[in-house]
């Protein structure tokens, strides 16, 4: 039996914490922690929409992602100083935006934009899945704020979204890879789900050997288990 | 029964053509056509490696992707003129590079880099999957050139790689989406496989409604069928 | 008697081919070949004009130029990846735009822009002159399309434009330099003419020794001969 | 008597908290809070020096500064996405670097660089002074880490540095301006001091009316009082 | 007694010359010389305001600063070629703009922008203080031009502004540092004053040892003396 | 008979002044004036060569060009602030560099680079031809400096270079166009010559109607006359 570096069971997630109202200015502000991975997720409401949507009577949700330079083991160059976002950063923020748009009825949102910002202050693997999971809570807080402010009438929230990583580590399908696992796993898969059990994104990459259909199915089972637990934690956080 | 805009059966690919030696300078140069989608794929051999690999006695494969401004129905801005590659471009070229690295034994390649360039001259959906499929043939030609030039001794080619898109169109799983289908499909999935049946990448995105596990499995079956056909066409092209 | 690397007579052009409707989306799309130099020229119609022309009741023609990274003997960096167009690229695209504007009556074009894109897929010298010659045919196709679409009433085409390079190679004035000649010629001159025999541009650069007025006149004679032949080929292509 | 928006006495600072080891990867990591202003300050040790110092047998301290997009009342554009740091950002990070270099004996530091990163997660005025004050504690932690790791022998710490803002608000000199004060004050002055009472930087700007020498002297007295209190808090934090 | 490299007394400025109408196109154009430091200062009038001021019935003054590449002892890279302005450049141009805005009543200026450009053609220390002093004269000329053109009715000039550097050189407070002094001085302070004796900016930086309050006061006295002399020279130049 | 806006005869140049040692730091520094066009040309000696020439035992000459923002009738944006040089700027600086390389024997220059900077402080047409003419004098001064400093033994100066613009204005060939002529001329041609009567560059552009061979020849005659006069003025300046 393979043992994980963290000692966790193959289907065990790290401890997850979701802290609402973490900073004071944003309409939604959440600190999400997946073990040592810590991300500040804010949702900002803007009373306008991007040019391509003007006059279409609908809203938009978009996202940006960043890492503090020393959120990682060795310091990364600051993207603002280098003058461009890396391909990895752009890929992740496109994923976050696409995932959260699945949570929202754009007609019901009206001509407003909710801008998500996910900033990693400490990284230990799974920053994109933590970002999506935390940002969905910030998004709900921003929507509730809009309702209190009478900016919208109905409820644009269609469903909750959560995300978890799974992978194949030394031949064993595992849930919620931390950095030591993720950097050596044969396969790394990020899954985004709805709280009704549908898939929004499945992105599985063989880093070493190709993976089989059996491994793919085993990873999907783990992801479903993980997302189910995350939906509960989101609800607990929102109930506080 | 849903009918596809192209009239194709749900499991039918478009006509695929692979033309080797399409341009004269590159060590490998292929024009790949998936119906109206046409991509020039070149493989260029460079007798050095990126800084992070120097002295490690291994090679590298990397890729860049671009579209001619008027490869599309309405003209896109030229990325060179705007001064940056879009997030989509970066995402695609990262995928192509990752996929083709799975074809190569980096130790056997020695301290050389094979640079893949995929430039779309006409687009009708599926440009990234056509790029991967065509670039793998260009890659083989570049490796054969290196062998003839005595730059390497063994054979760094581990396996062939091909790629196809699948999706759910009006509720029906379909193979090889063209632009009219891809722009309205509920789900779009790109699959990269090895000729031994393993998965290198599975990237499935719900554009509209979430997709179910049954749909996911049906799409994977279609992708396997498509990749199998593509491996045959690659072999025919390489045999000429 | 000096012999040219290609074995051509001093006043002989390479084989020229002009293929219309080379790609399917653009209003005008031409593959132009001057021997091994191959350029895709498209003309795209846009129903607006740049800011500095708004409300002036006239149109505009502008051009962009690029080379595929491996259109050349050794791979060039991709301009989109480096984040800027080189000085050479900008110089060439300014020349192409200026040359083609001489073909068009801007009042008759109305408030439309014709955007020319010249993308070199294989280079062997003379890419800018091939671009101008091919783009003029694409421009005519775009204008004819506008007439069929009833976007304009009259005919904004004033005259045809073609372009050829001439030079002094080992003391001998020669027509239509290919890459081996152009990289060693003492003088390289690009000439753009109208089909009525006027000059639009003469750009002659001494790469080695200065050139004399006699050499200049000899080069101009060759250029006139070359442009005359190119006007015939443009007409043949347009007649098909 | 003028009353401050916060109700504080004219010579009263906001509550200051300095939390060491706030994140886990950096050699020094501090969360500094001046009331609602919260900044993560990390100090990263790098075993090299910038090019202009190579071979000079001395070290370097440099700094970068950033704000999370929603650290402020209305969302600011992300500098990494815009592709450049603002003039304000550059001015602040130059000030932070210059100030902290005054704390360090560069010869004793040897050929190492300490990179300071100050990232504002919540802003309410005084972010640059909080950054300097917090970063000095992170710097000490990084130096202590280098000593434990035997990277250096002696102690490169020459003196502690702290910084506070002062200003003239409705004619009254005040200490430690928060955002509502700073945005309406006639004069805003940032002072950086050593724990031996010397001045490292005095930067006083009249936003409205010019200030007199008397006002300048009154502000300096307040700054001395503030810095003295900050040095005590730094020592308490370092003693924990 | 310490002697200055230039042989000047500690409170002696270099020879200052202010030449109006130095170039012919700008509404105000001044060559200012502080010894060997020579700066062309122009003031350009634009009949619009930046976006953030539109409709507010007030004007704006802003500034840009540059150095010719060989204005200095060894050639500096050209900022336009490198594609960005350095932090130092941005800091200086922000200072110039802020200083000159103190000279102008923005309501009286109406919806106009005065754009200041300070370009150093020869540098020998003190370029920012010479820029501010010279630009204020160009600003007056631009305002007088606007009055003659009937663009404004009243007089938006509130007060004159001048600027001088002071420092501590080998322990001695000195006025108007040239490059040899400035590059070795322990402290460098730039002071911007109004002709009514108020302070607009005081920016004092310890380059080596910290400075004491006594040194600060001595430097301020020198600065007052220097600015007083500069106001006289501005008036003489404006009287010509 | 057409009269020129300036009242000059068709073959009359504006008054030309060449002032050496205009600024004090550069090895060669010239203010060149063609009437109201004023350009500072400096030549800076660097004891290294660009990467592509290392180890080839030869030198290099390169050039950069800029315009002060208010050198023109209406203010141009500062290229350093916009973050890029325009196509026009790049075209001109490539022309200047190419022209001056014709003056120098690169082997005799040894492994040194002479960097030319041409900065327009006042523009009235013909800035590129004035730049080339003035920069050649600065180049000679830099070469003489290198000889005095014993950096080189022989004399790398092969020949003098000068440049003038000619054109067709209202049907009349004219010499040395100023801005009012240049902006309305049908044809604008820049000619670069050697003092032995050879052509380095001929760049003739039809802005309106195409030009005939007769006009081309007439313009060349005028250019020869102009360059001959410029060579005399260069020699007078160098003799002082």
From TrEMBL, chains A, B, C, D, E, F:
Domain of life: Bacteria
Reactions the enzyme catalyzes: tRNA(n+1) + phosphate = tRNA(n) + a ribonucleoside 5'-diphosphate
Binding residues annotated for phosphate, in chain numbering: 88, 126-128
Classification via Gene3D superfamilies: GHMP Kinase, N-terminal domain (3.30.230.70)
CDD domains for this protein: RNase_PH_bact
GO function terms (MF aspect): 3'-5'-RNA exonuclease activity; tRNA binding; tRNA nucleotidyltransferase activity
Transmembrane parts of this sequence: none
PANTHER family named in the record: EXOSOME COMPLEX COMPONENT, EXOSOME COMPLEX COMPONENT RRP41
Record-given protein name: Ribonuclease PH
Species: Oceanospirillum linum
Organismal lineage: Bacteria, Pseudomonadati, Pseudomonadota, Gammaproteobacteria, Oceanospirillales
Gene name, Swiss-Prot/TrEMBL: rph
């Amino acid at each position: 039996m393979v043992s994980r570096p963290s000692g966790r069971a193959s289907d065990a997630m790290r401890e997850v914490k979701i802290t609402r109202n973490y900073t004071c200015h944003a309409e939604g502000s959440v600190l999400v922690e997946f073990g040592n991975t810590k991300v500040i997720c804010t949702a900002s409401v803007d009373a306008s929409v991007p040019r391509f949507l003007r006059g279409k009577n609908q809203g938009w949700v978009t996202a940006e992602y960043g890492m503090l330079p020393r959120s990682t083991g060795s310091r990364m160059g600051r993207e603002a100083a280098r003058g461009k976002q890396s391909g990895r950063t752009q890929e992740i923020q496109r994923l976050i935006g696409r995932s959260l748009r699945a949570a929202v009825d754009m007609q019901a949102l009206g001509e407003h934009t909710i801008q998500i910002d996910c900033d990693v202050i400490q990284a230990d693997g799974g920053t994109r899945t933590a970002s999506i999971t935390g940002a969905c809570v910030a998004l709900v807080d921003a929507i509730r704020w809009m309702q209190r402010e009478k900016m919208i009438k109905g409820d644009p929230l269609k469903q909750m979204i959560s995300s978890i990583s799974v992978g194949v580590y030394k031949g064993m399908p595992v849930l919620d890879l931390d950095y030591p696992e993720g950097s050596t796993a044969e396969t790394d898969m990020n899954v985004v789900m709805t709280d009704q059990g549908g898939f929004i994104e499945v992105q599985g990459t063989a880093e070493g050997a190709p993976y089989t259909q059996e491994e793919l199915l085993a990873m999907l089972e783990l992801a479903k288990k993980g997302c189910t637990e995350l939906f509960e934690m989101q609800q607990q956080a929102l109930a506080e």
